[in-house]
Amino acid sequence: MTAPPLARLVAPRDLEPLRAQHPEIQLLDVRTPGEFEAVHVKGAYNVPLGLLSEHAAEFAAGVRGPVVLICQSGGRATQAHRSLHQAGHQSLYVLEGGMNGWISANLPAVRRVPRMSLERQVRIAAGTLVAIGSGLALVVHPLIALLPLFIGSGLVFSGVTDTCGMGLLISKLPWNRGPKCDIDAAIRALANTT
User: Fold this and answer.
1) What is the four-CA torsion angle of 144, 156, 124, 138, rounded to 10 degrees?
2) Fold designation for 8-115+178-192
3) N or C: which end of the chain has fewer CB within 10 A?
4) pLDDT value of residue 193
5) Residue ranges of the domains in the chain?
6) Interatomic CA distance for residues 45 and 186, integer angstroms
7) Distance between CA atoms of 77 and 97, rounded to whole angstroms?
8) Mean of all residue pLDDT scores within the chain
9) Would the pLDDT of 18 be above 50?
10) Per-position DSSP letters for the chain, written without gaps between them
11) C-beta separation of 69 from 49 below 8 A
C-alpha cells in the first residue's frame, strides 16, 4: 500500500480567489461541533473528523467535487485528507494553518458561542496531569511519576503519528458537543452543491 500524497495546501488569503474561479469548491470543517459553533468560515459544512473517518467511503462516493478541509491548525484536516484520499476522493485541499491561520489573516468568520479549541484543552489537560503527577511523586510516592511519564510518552506518540488519543477523549465531553452532525445530510448537501 502506498502512502497518500501530501495534502495540497491553500493559503487563507488564496481561498476566496480560488473559490471565485472555481465555485464548485466546497469547504468541510472537521473540528468538533463546539469548535465549529464558536467560529467558522462562512459556507463551511461541519463533519467532525471521527465521524468523517468512519464514513470516508460514503463521503468519497457521494462528493466528487473539490473540497477544502479545515480544522483548527491543520493537523486534523491532514488526517481527514488521508482518510478521504484512501477512500478514493482525489480532489482535496487543506486550509494552511486552519482556522488559526484564517483568523490571523484577519479574514471574515462567522462567530457565535466562544469556546476553547480542542488543542488548547489538550495542552491544559496534559500540563495539569504532568504537574499533579510530578508534585505527588515528590510528596507522596515516587511511583506516581509513572503518570507524567505516561502523559509525556503519549504526547511523543501523538506528535510522531499525528493522532491524539487525549483529544479524541476530550472531544466527547459535553461542552465540546454541539448540534449532532447528520453525515448523510452533509454528504447530500455537499454533493448537491458541486
Assistant:
1) 20
2) Oxidized Rhodanese; domain 1 (3.40.250)
3) N
4) 59
5) 8-115+178-192, 118-170
6) 7
7) 10
8) 87
9) yes
10) -PPPPPPEEE-HHHHHHHHHH-TT-EEEE-S-HHHHHHEE-TT-EE--HHHHHHTHHHHHHH--S-EEEE-SSSHHHHHHHHHHHHTT---EEEETTHHHHHHHTT---EE-S----HHHHHHHHHHHHHHHHHHHHHHT-GGGGHHHHHHHHHHHHHHHHT--HHHHHHTTSGGG--SPP-HHHHHHHHHHT-
11) no
- pLDDT over 80 (residue 106): yes
Distance (Å) of CA 133 to CA 129, 157, 168: 6, 19, 22
Is 181 one of the catalytic residues? no
What does the pLDDT look like over 23-71, one tens digit per residue? 899 999 999 888 898 899 999 999 999 889 889 999 888 888 899 999 9
Contacts of 194 (CB under 8 A, 6+ apart): 24, 26, 63, 64, 65, 66
Cell numbers for 161: 503519528
Query: CA 72, CA 83: separation in Å to the nearest integer?
Result: 18
- Report the C-alpha gap between 141 and 30 in whole angstroms: 42
Q: Would strands 67-70 and 8-10 be described as parallel, antiparallel, or unpaired?
A: unpaired
Residue type, 134: S
The residue among 122, 105, 108 whose CA lies nearest residue 31 is 122
C-alpha cell recorded at residue 169: 477523549
Better pLDDT: 189 or 143: 143
